[in-house]
Amino acid sequence: MRGVVLHAPGDVRVEDREEPRITAPTDAVIRLTATCVCGSDLWPYRGIEEVDGPAPMGHEYVGVVEEVGGDVRNVRPGQFVVGSFFASDNTCEICRAGYQSSCVHRVPVGSLGAQAQYLRVPLADGTLVATPGMPDDDLVPSLLAASDVLGTGWFAAVAAEVGPGRTAAVVGDGAVGLLGVLAAARLGAERIIAMSRHEPRQRLAREFGATDVVTERGDEGVARVKDLTGGLGAHSVIEAVGTQQSMMQAIRSTRPGGHVGYVGVTHDVALPGMELFSSHVHLHGGPAPVRRFLPELVDLVLDRRIDPGKVFDLTLPLDRAAEGYAAMDERRAVKTLLTP
Amino acid sequence: MRGVVLHAPGDVRVEDREEPRITAPTDAVIRLTATCVCGSDLWPYRGIEEVDGPAPMGHEYVGVVEEVGGDVRNVRPGQFVVGSFFASDNTCEICRAGYQSSCVHRVPVGSLGAQAQYLRVPLADGTLVATPGMPDDDLVPSLLAASDVLGTGWFAAVAAEVGPGRTAAVVGDGAVGLLGVLAAARLGAERIIAMSRHEPRQRLAREFGATDVVTERGDEGVARVKDLTGGLGAHSVIEAVGTQQSMMQAIRSTRPGGHVGYVGVTHDVALPGMELFSSHVHLHGGPAPVRRFLPELVDLVLDRRIDPGKVFDLTLPLDRAAEGYAAMDERRAVKTLLTP
């Protein structure tokens, strides 16, 4: 089968890879309908994360079940399924508490390579959510979004305790930040401040529910958020970048007692203890437990109440994955969908 | 009047200071019944925090109202009152959200010097809680504890979301950590792991409700907490020290999705972003909004349902404050009560 392999920073190739097979009775193999490039894929692509030999890429996926292992009960061949980027048993104590991405048996799907034609999904019963029937083609991008980028934006909004009567601010106008805006709107935020300097992304943010746009960054951005919130800061701030500057911007934009939900994979970040102590914020985040939200998100998509697939502004055949990485790297595309 | 002044690290003197007067119509002046030395007073005493010229010390206090400004409505001369270490209006949006120690009009009582015979309390209506009558003498230490050290341990337990069915762990066996144990017990924790190497403090921890004691520190301490919690870590961890080691010990002792409540004043702490991200913990803390809890804590003390005053294992007249600092610095005393 064809699959994306990263050989070195900037060196994305689509190659023949061995077709995955059932290796454990809890596995499923799915034929991918769509996959995509994640902002976090850009870290090794840019050489900021080390690339350890040729590595299969991709962890976002929807597809049709081809085969299941002998112990799989919840999905069967022929079903359309959405998964998340950590396989999880969904039964351990951590999963039951809603943290499936820290499941005691978790397997990172990224290590298996979902930018491909087929994917082996471990712990299929815990990981995959089947749709009631075969979804309409135009819903596929939104279902694919649910598998990571929407689920991650949603978790950020939940972690930031967005809710009615609250003002949310969103640091980061990538796909996760934009879907954080969508999540904040669905969760009832009274006011949503999107922080973005890019006009097309601002427009999408407004479409997803942003009521205000702040173009300033860093301390100036913080000052603008304070201006908009009676000098206090937002109740809930979503951090969707993962740099020192964006984390500090998020923390400083939050009022005392408010909540920061951070989902940008943190690189070279060190949070100063005394400032955090004085800030009085709640800090929560990490790899989104997408599985917690998947059933609800899939329903919202199938009912056409949300359209997160709009973040895909570039669609390419899998074989042209390298172009998709480059477009995102150069910020010419928000997010690239790949069709295997 | 007599009052404690820190001249330089290790140089605590009790001197004649000018008696405080009403300077704003929202002030009260109280005659102190008891005051004490805080763990945080040891930071400048040890030279870890800079000492900026001779500085009046102390921010924990109970006493009797001598005089009130023209706008004070909630307390009157002759009443016994308990205050907290930040004066707060208790009416602003931040106060109403329960973060009085970040009140938009807050005044640090430490800057006024509560280790003295008299104290001016700004924003008296928002800051002070009067008892129904004059409390019994034996309750004074516990009421004094409510003004900071109990309120701080209590906030840590609330921030760590201690509750029924949960396992709490407490990093730090100073007075705040010990009262974090007490708070965890009152809040219904099923199991409370006190981390302490000091036998008398272990005993007090058990008296306050600890079910387990872990003597190991750092990674060994973390491993012991994991052993005691099915390999997962505690649901709720109270951090009551404020060093890099104690913060990391707290974070690492917490299960994914669990909560760290940190109240140790953080010195030279830098939290590594990637580890925090991967940990999946909730992090909340800062200067305890003691005022939020004061009415409840005062009631618990007056009803003799808790006895937090037990953390005072040394009582000295105010004039011997220097001995009290030294005893705490050398860990000969958990906490020193001073009688003006």
UniProtKB/TrEMBL annotation, chains A, B:
PROSITE patterns: ADH_ZINC. Residues 175-285 form the Alcohol dehydrogenase-like C-terminal domain. Transmembrane segments: none annotated. Belongs to the zinc-containing alcohol dehydrogenase family. The keyword Zinc applies. Residues 25-123 form the Alcohol dehydrogenase-like N-terminal domain. The keyword Metal-binding applies. This is Threonine dehydrogenase-like Zn-dependent dehydrogenase. Its cofactor is Zn(2+). It comes from Saccharothrix longispora. Keywords: Metal-binding, Oxidoreductase, Zinc.
